[in-house]
Amino acid sequence: MCPTLDQICCASLPQPALAALADLRREPEIRVLIQGDRAWVRWPAVDERVLRRILPVSGVLLFARHAGLWYQLGRHLPTFAIPRELDRESVPLATALVPDRIEVALPRRTSTQPARLRLVRDEFVRPASAMRCRLNALAAWAETVPSSRVNSLRAAIAGDLVMLLGSPLPALADGTRYWGAKLLIPLGFRADPSLSEDALRRTLSVASTELLLLTPGGYEVISSHVFKPLTRSGIRLSERSLHT
Question: Of the candidates 54, 73, 157, 192, which lies 20 to 30 Å from 164 by C-alpha distance?
Answer without folding.
Answer: 192
